[in-house]
Design goal:
heterodimer; A: 273 residues; mainly beta; 4-stranded mixed sheet; 8% helix; elongated; B: alpha+beta; Alpha-Beta Plaits; 15-stranded mixed sheet; two-stranded antiparallel ribbon
Chain lengths: 273, 301
């Protein structure tokens, strides 16, 4: 295992673009310490901020320290395991295609943005645009899983195309806006405009009655067998398990202004084990 | 060889490869899971006259099913993947999709030898079906009048073994049937094994061919007690008045062999004169399950 220990907190954002387990596999610790990283508008060596110890050949990398000002942790990683023993800055796991990223603290905005594979776990909260599309992009997350144990900011799953985002707490405004497919779970409830522009895909919402956008229509109350499959997958991902057996599911369809093939399931009362 | 007074004939069951799939059916409760299971595995005794051989493999608790509801594991066998896919699509479509509250899942690893079931049944949704990907598994959610039918897209297949069998020669119909029931119960304790005939027990004892050219199989008169006095050759020793056969299919040869071994031990005893097995002289299938080899050394009575 390779350990990167933050010894100097950056005063402006530091970007770890390209410092991923799959790319460090064949590098010695001394070479890793010399890797160029962007610090504000300057390029510095990684070792200027991190003490590098251990061996990266097993594909297991650990980052220790408050990295809330460190951007792009695990961005674009394709394989391996990356663990952040604290907070992570913007774009953590963005455009990931494989491997696992675990943030034991909070993650800032754009975590898992436009990722296509792999698994991200945030033990704390995530910022805005979790799994979302970057401005101007046609698709957000296109595969993989993002699990956020606490809350999440606005525009989670914006333009999501495939994959699973599960949030244990509340999700901010415009959750799942313009989703094309995939699954968003928000056990603690959602803010306004959840599912606005939804084309297809599934949004599962717990908590208080959401204020649905005008294009969302109530369909029925029922017990979808699919929720059982989802609950088991979430449990396997270490997410608080849903007790779907005791849940009333209110099914809505929308956004009718965009075809109306999306589904929005409101669970009441939500019971967690 | 004798076991608890029952003669074990030195012969073998002749088994042959068949493509197998495991289907896990779940429902709101075990009653409805069984309703679907019984319907889906109906008319599936033998590929002589059915599109597939099928049966209930095991009851599954909610903890063992993909959606956390009570379920039943079913096994289906057919001569090829194409035939199996057609049979599964028809049977799942007509008997499980239509059954209240059910869902249907694959129970074997998906490989390049898989068959597409949910992916064919999704069209029933007429454009309202929903696809959900979980890892590499795709599920189809088809709207129904009670909610939705959830079905996995692909079902894995394995090269299974069919034609394992035991023939029990009893002193009376009651004794033979009781022994057959014991045998079926013992055989089905082996995972991956089904007994596709009604109750797992066969009374028809068919042989290949017939005096009527259109028939592929007909009665095996050598094992019919009522014909003992009418045919030149009989396989029934004195004192035998009823015969039942237990036919077994399994996901592999070891499972079928173990099921037969347990079946012999369960069947042997008072009221059962002889236990033998059906074969075609080694011309039908590559797998020969010799009864004496299955039993191993039998302790003296």
């Amino acid at each position: 295992m390779l350990t990167l220990t933050l010894h100097t907190r950056p005063d402006v954002p530091l970007e770890l673009d390209g410092v991923t387990p799959d790319r460090l596999l064949k590098l010695a610790a001394t070479d890793i310490a010399r890797l160029p990283v962007a610090h504000g508008n300057r390029t510095v060596e990684l070792g200027a901020f991190f003490a590098v110890t251990g061996d990266a050949s097993d594909g297991d990398v650990r980052i220790v320290g408050d990295c809330s000002r460190v951007k792009l942790i695990g961005a674009g990683m394709t394989a391996g395991r990356l663990t952040v023993e604290g907070d992570a800055g913007w774009h953590a796991g963005a455009k990931m295609t494989g491997g696992t990223l675990t943030v034991k603290g909070d993650a800032a905005d754009w975590v898992g943005a436009e990722m296509t594979g792999g698994a991200i776990t945030v033990r704390g909260s995530a910022g805005h645009q979790c799994g979302a599309a970057y401005r101007g992009s046609r698709h957000g997350m296109r595969g993989g899983t993002i699990v956020v144990h606490k809350s999440c900011g606005d525009e989670a799953a914006l333009l999501m195309r495939r994959g699973l985002i599960a949030v244990g707490g509340e999700v901010g405004r415009a959750a799942g806006a313009s989703m094309i497919a995939g699954t968003l779970v928000a056990l603690g409830g959602v803010g306004r405009d959840c599912g606005a522009g939804l084309k297809r895909g599934t949004i599962v919402v717990g908590g208080p009655d959401p204020v649905w956008p005008p294009g969302v229509r109530f369909s029925c109350e029922y017990a979808p067998a699919y929720l059982g499959v989802l609950a088991k997958e979430l449990a396997a991902l270490g997410f608080p398990s849903l007790d779907v057996s005791g849940v009333k599911v209110r099914c809505h369809r929308g956004d009718v202004l965009h075809g109306g093939h999306g589904e929005l399931l409101h669970l009441t009362p939500l019971q967690t084990r | 060889m004798h076991l608890r007074g029952t003669e074990i004939v030195d012969t073998f069951a002749e088994a042959f490869p068949m493509t197998a799939a495991r289907v896990v059916v779940t429902a709101v409760n075990s009653k409805w899971a069984h309703v679907a299971a019984v319907a889906a595995t109906g008319y599936a005794a033998s590929v002589i006259g059915c599109d597939a051989e099928a049966g209930v493999e095991a009851e599954l608790s909610p903890a063992d099913t993909p959606d956390g509801r009570p379920g039943v594991a079913l096994l289906f066998f057919a001569f090829s993947r194409d035939v199996l896919q057609k049979a599964l699509v028809n049977r799942v479509g007509q008997c499980i999709l239509t059954c209240a509250t059910t869902a249907c899942f694959n129970g074997l690893p998906v490989t390049d030898r898989s068959v597409r079931v949910g992916g064919n049944l999704r069209y029933f949704g007429d454009g309202h079906q929903i696809s959900k990907m979980h890892g590499v598994r795709r599920f189809w959610r088809v709207p129904t009048m009670d909610g939705e039918f959830l079905c996995e897209d692909l079902f894995g297949t394995v090269k299974g073994v069919a034609g394992g069998n035991l023939i029990l020669l009893g002193t009376s119909q009651a004794a033979a049937l009781e022994a057959a029931e014991r045998t079926v119960a013992a055989c089905l304790t082996v995972p991956g094994v089904i007994a596709p005939f009604p109750g797992g027990v066969v009374r028809s004892g068919s042989k290949v061919g017939s005096k009527y050219k259109t028939l592929k199989a007909s009665v095996n008169e050598a094992y019919c007690p009522t014909l003992r006095g009418a045919v030149p050759h009989t396989e029934l020793p004195d004192g035998v008045n009823a015969v039942y056969e237990v036919v077994l299919d399994g996901v592999d040869l070891a499972a079928v062999g173990e099921a037969m071994r347990r079946g012999i031990y369960a069947a042997a005893g008072p009221g059962v004169v002889r236990i033998t097995a059906g074969n075609y002289g080694g011309k039908l299938g590559p797998h020969h399950l010799h009864l004496h080899e299955l039993l191993g050394p039998v302790p003296p009575c």
